[in-house]
Structures are given as structure tokens and as C-alpha cells.
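New to this. Help decode both lines:
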Amino acid sequence: MANKLEFIATLPIFADLSDAAQAAIARVATEYSFKQNAVIAYQRDVAGSLTIVKEGRLFARGLDANGIVRETRSYTPGQYFNDLWLFVPGIHSATVKGAEDGRLLIISGPAFVKLLQDFPAIVDQLAPRDSDGTRYGLSDAAWLEAQKLKLRRQVRASSAAALLPEERLEYFARRSLWLLAGRLLMPILLVLLGLVALIFMPTDTGLQRALKYGAPIVLTLIGAVWFALRLIDWRGDYFIITNRHLTHHEFELRRFRVRLVKIPIGQVQTVEVLKPSLLANLFNVGSARVTTAAVAGNVLFDNIDRPVKVKDVLERLTGLYRSVESAQTQAVMRQSIEKHFGMEMPLKTEDEAKPPARVQRPDNFFTRLRKRYGWRVVEGNTITYRKSLFILIKRTAVPGLILLGLLIFAGFGIYLDMTPWVVALVVIIGGFADLLALVWQIEDWRNDVFQLTDRFVIDIDRTPFGFGESRKQAAISNIQNVDAARPGFLPTLFNYGFVSIDTAGAKSDIVFDYVPNPELIQSDIFQRLDDFRRQQRINEGSARREEYALLIDVYRQAMEQNRIPQRTPPDYTDEQNQQTP
């Protein structure tokens, strides 16, 4: 570990980091050894880490579509591959081999990004700079991606959007400020009208004096409230594009309702930019209509500045998505072939054995209480959700008021010298019945849960004390779309609402009703859906790749035994050369 830390401290990319930051980098870096001619990376394979040469030398050679060498390069100690791959997965443009025996460090992109999210101060220390001809810190492209981590934190702090752990923010926008200015024009005119009335209205009569001072107050109040509502409406509407999803968050002021639509990037089909008027072209304001393969159909990013940027970002992300998918398929197929033929791994880890896992301590009282009544409880692969605490308050309001009334009755009974046994009987019987009703409502709230596993979404409705249970579930594989909404003033104010899960089959849709933070639950479901689809692709292709490897094995055996005849005629020149003595 110390040797690794000392080496990291000498690298220009990490030279400006504090000792604690360099130690954190060393903890997420893994050291490997390699032999001469070992293939470190294949051309067109996916790249998602930073590879740094520690000892020895690597040689890279890239071929074009015609098999002609177009790129050659050597990597010596202290040099590394593209640091942009720490933030954005890329594609290897060349095959990299060991020119001699050596060692290297590999820092995984997801692990590095998580480190920066946990310790955001490191981001500023990685700023690029030049000194004495030496480049320090990240490259410009990688630094731009690192800055997006700060924007991610700002978005999460200023909105209800819940980003997944591996999501990278690419685009965030509200509707145009020109649109906001147009909507605020009337409220501002009302306030100005009140000021004009205050200055120029005569005061000859009592009615005129009342109007002179009353009208401005009324107009100013109306204008101020109108102004505030318009501003709230504008701030509640925004659009987000990440490397995984595009999101439209819409706040409907008239019904005080929030609706959030989230679509995976892989389902984006086309993007159309609309600028319908001369003013829209003049101020560069318009809309971007995104056609998707999801149930939601079209997603409209309307009245935004520079709508062409949405098209550019989505086209870049969808192109990268398809390229990475193809590269991952190539890498997995190669791994299957290597596994079938028992090929030796090119890299061998040199890190010390990891310390044993910590012994899990038994749950204390507060942990058990949180698991029993918490609104979001994670246990293994299962996430359990409960309805909002405000629903519990609503259900227990009547029993609580009755209990309060009994206490008041007891107090007045004592104060008025009522018969003690009558007061005690009423309080005991009424209190016991009311307490049962209160406990019943609490248990009924606790028992109604929604669960998300790696295979199912489940809606469980239990009657308290085991008197009955109904269960509705749908497979993750059947989920087609997930919508989150906060309908009404109180749900929007206290952040609870509905998560609607559209599944294959008309009677199998599931709704998580009155749940806190519905946007976070929506993101949880999308995370499980993405994980399921990724694993499904791996499982479905596993048997097929094994068959391909076996086919290659059989073909190789047949070629070695010269059992496969030539399928194309030899070249005429070759025949002539063979006949010439």
C-alpha cells in the first residue's frame, strides 16, 4: 500500500492532491502485473477505467477497417490511458500489449466517481494547470465531466429529481427566461398601476382618499401573489438528461400537481427541434420533441433556450450507448471464448488480501424501530416502502381527538366534583376502546407495504394482527413504464404521492399510493429494471456464446485435421506460379 501511495504521489495527474486525497485514490486503485505480449486491452472493447503504467512498457497499435496500421504508441512508467474514461465509458481505439514484463495500476471509473461524490473537495484539487511544460491535474475533457458532479449536487438540492448512483448529469434546463419575463409582465404592471394610482389619484373627497390608499394596496397584493405563483410555476418545471435517462418534471399550478416522466436513453428514437415563430428564432427559444419506444411515446422539452443542444446531447448519448453496448458484447464474447479454451488471464492482481469483512453488530432499539416503522427500509435485495406519515396522522386523528376529549372530561369531572366511579368508568372504558382503535390504525398503516425486489414489485395490504392479507405483484421483466406524481397542494408541499407502474397485461398494473418521495421510488424501480435487463442480456447470451465458442473449437479441430475443403477457387496467378518449374 505504501509503495502504491508513493507512486501515486509522483503522478502529475494527482500531484496537487492532499495526502489524505492521495491515500483515498490509492485505496480505490488495484495493482496488477503483466507479462510480455500479454494483451491488456483489445481494440473496440469498452473502456471504463484509468490504466497507469507503473513498471515496464506497453505498446498500442490500432488498425483501420482495411487492416492498415493507423495508430502506434508506447506507454512508459507514469503514463496512462485516457483519463476521460474515469467519467465517461469509451472505446479502445487500439490493441494494447505488454512490450515487456511490468506492473500497472487500474482505477475503476465508478469507484473513482463515488470517491469524488463522497469527498467533493477532491474535485477542485484535480483542476488542470500547466507548469514548466508539465501538465498537472485532469485533462480539459475529464475536468469538464468532473464539474458535472457539482451540477449534480446542485440539481439534487434544488429539485425533487432523484439520480441513480451511476447516473451522470448531461443536461439540466428550465423553461426560457424570456417565457418567464412574459408571464411576469402582467403582475408587474399591476404593481406599477398601484403606484400610479398612489401618485396621481386626487384626494378631494373621502372616497377618493380611500381609493388613493386602498387601491394600491389591493393591486400590489394581487400583483405580488400573482408574481410569486408564476415564479413557483416556472421553477417547478425542468428537464434533465443523464447518461441513463431523460426526465421531464412538470408542476401544474392550477391543480398544484407534480408529474415526473422518466425514459431510458436506450428507448430514444428520434429528436426533432421546433422553432415555430420569428420571435422564437430571434431569441433562440423553441422545443425539442423526443420520440421514444416507451409507453409515454413523445416527450416534449418545450419553450427552452437553445433547443438544438437537447438534440446534440441526445444524439451523442444514444450513439455512445449503442457503441458501448456493442463493445460490451464483444468483450463478453471474448471472455466466453477465453473461458472455454482455458486461456490464462493477462493481468494478475498484486494487491494484498483485503481485510475480513466487519462483523455485523446486532440491531439496537432505534435500528429495530426504523425497520418496523421506516418509510424506506433496505434489507438485502428487498426495499420496503410504507405510506406517508401524514396518512398515519390522518387515520389516527379521530382516535387521538377522542383520547384528548377523555382527558379533558376527566379533568372537568374532577374539577366539578362529579361522581368519581362514573368518571373513572367512562375514562377507562372509553380510553381502552379508543386505544384499541389507535393501535389498530397504527398497525394497519405499518402493515400496508410496497416492496421492490430484484425480480418483482409487490403491493401488500394486510389487516392488523393477521386477520387477512391481499397481495398483488408484477415481474420486473413486465414493467413498461413508471410514472411519479404528487397530486394536490398537501402532497406537493409535503412530498408524497403516487408511483404508477405500467406492466404488460391490463389487470396487472400496480400503484404505490401515498408514498413519500415518489421520485426516489421511481428511480429505485428504474435502477432495478436496468440491472434486471443487463443481467437478462448476460444470461440470454451466455448459452449462445458457449455454443459459439464450441463451434469455434470444432472448426479449429477440423482445420487442424485438414478436413474442411477449400470453398473458393485459387487465384490464377497462384496457379501459374505453382505450375512454373
Observations:
- The chain has 16 helices and 27 strands.
